[in-house]
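Our preliminary data section would be incomplete without showing what the modeling component actually yields. Below, a chain of 92 amino acids is followed by its predicted structure, encoded as tokens that our downstream tools consume directly.
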Amino acid sequence: MALEAAFWRALRDIAVREGTTVDALCTDINRRRGSAPLPTSVRVFVVSYYRQATPALQTNSASDSASLSQDLLKEALEAMIQPDTPISGKHH
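Predicted structure:
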């Protein structure tokens, strides 16, 4: 299955947090995906997992919240454009 390196890293992180393996996660996603392509289903799973795991940003001031949001956005964009070595190994 072809996925961007960031999604492979996220799957590994989730597997560690949940006490399972990437293979087991992909197998479970594959069983539940319906007619959606597996890579798309994995991406949706990863985003959904992190959305559920991330508490709402709540700070005492709007400026602190805006600054934190800007930092998160910048960090996410930088991570997206960083060249990564492709992860070897095939999963489903």
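The helical segments are 5-18, 22-32, 38-53, 62-81. The CA atoms of residues 6 and 80 lie 8 Å apart. Preliminary results of this kind motivate Aim 1 of the renewal.
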